[in-house]
Structure formats: C-alpha cells, structure tokens
Amino acid sequence: MTGWRVTRWTGTWLIPDFTAVAEDYDAVHLSIAGYLATAGRVLPVGDSCTVLAGWDPDQTYWLTDTLTVAGPATIWTQTGEGPPGTTVPVCDLIMVHAGDARSCVW
Asked: pTM (2 decimals)?
C-alpha cells in the first residue's frame, strides 16, 4: 500500500464509510485548522489507522442531494466601477437603473 511507503504503518488501514456518514450528515467539511493538524499524519483509530488523503483545506464534500433553493439565482457582473474585480448582482444594477427597488427583471 502507498500509505505504508509514507508512514511505515504495517497494521490495518481504515477508510471512511461515507455512505454511513450520509445517514446522519449532509456534508463533511475539513477546516483549515483540521487540515493543518492531520494532513500527512497517521491517525490512530482503535487498533487501526487512517490518513487524511485527497482533501484540500477548507473543502466540503456534499454527501446528499438535500439542498433546497433559498431564493432566485443571482447573476453577477463586473461594473467597471471601483477596484478591479468589483462585481454586483445584475438584479441590483437593473433596480438602480429602473429606480424601483421592487422590480427585478431577469
């Protein structure tokens, strides 16, 4: 196993059962602090071990399709005003030009 070449652990390796995790959670998030504390290290789990692999800092893996739409989608555009990269929702631009905060044409 490749993990052995890096860690020299000769015992049993465990991998997460994300199907079982999805029964109780919608997503798994790895914080930056969690990544820095665990990346590349052997992590004991009982008489076995695991290692953090295939994750980036501050990454979330969604395990279920339970997301619901919270409202209409917002399309963003660059305005050319302000610092480079400044963006505003297109809807806000239309509302400003239309002068009516209640109308938003998509």
From this structure: 0.56
Q: Which two tokens stand for residue 38?
A: 């665990």
Confidence of residue 36 (pLDDT cuts 50, 70, 90): very high
Q: 69: Cβ–Cβ under 8 A, 6 or more apart, which residues?
A: none
Instruction: State yes or no: pLDDT of 94 exceeds 90.
Output: no
CB 9 within 8 A of CB 40: no
User: Cα–Cα distance between 92 and 72 in angstroms, integer?
Assistant: 13
Whats the size of the chain, residue-wise? 106
SS3 assignment, position 48? strand
* Token pair 């109308």 in the structure block, residue: 103
